[in-house]
Structure formats: C-alpha cells, structure tokens
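Q: Hi! First time doing this. I have a protein sequence and I read that you can turn it into a structure. Is that right? Here it is:
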Amino acid sequence: MYTDTNFRSNICFEGKRKVSVDDRNFVLEDIPENIVEETVMKEFLYTITAEFDAMSDILADIEPHRISIENEKKLFEDDIYIQSYIIHEISTLTEKNIVSQN
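A: Yes, that's right. Below is the predicted 3D structure, encoded as structure tokens:
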C-alpha cells in the first residue's frame, strides 16, 4: 500500500516482502520508490500468486498484454510456471531518460 500514487512523490511501501504460495516464492529486497516501480513489483508478485485478474488490472491496457496474461494463465493451469522471484533491486526509466536514449 502506498500513501501517495504520484509518480515523483515519496511513498511508503507497506506490502509484504516475502510471499510463499505452494511451491512458489516471492522475495522483495528493494522497496518501490514510485508507482512505476510498484507496478513492476506487482507484476512479479502476481505471477507468483497466480493473480491473473489483478495482473490484467495493472497491465492489460493493450491487446498484446491481455494475450500474454491469458497465455501465462493457461500455462499455469498446465503446471508450467515460474517458481521463484527474488527482486534485488527495482529501477525504472523516467520519460526523460527514454526520450534521451532515442
């Protein structure tokens, strides 16, 4: 949970840093500093917890993303999935960084 979802603001992460579900594990060693980093972290978490609807809520804004999530769900149902994510560090590019690299 974040106290502020403004991209550039300081936020207060209150989510779980370790999650285990059956034979799957998620470990967060770095704390998200903005809403973009939170989204990245949640994508990994939702993969481990098999929360595909929640993943769609944050990522399925275009058809290729929806298809990818649907395919991941089908694979999960066939017992083909990632068993562990350990997030050592999260960093994302700003729009300015992306533009300057083009």
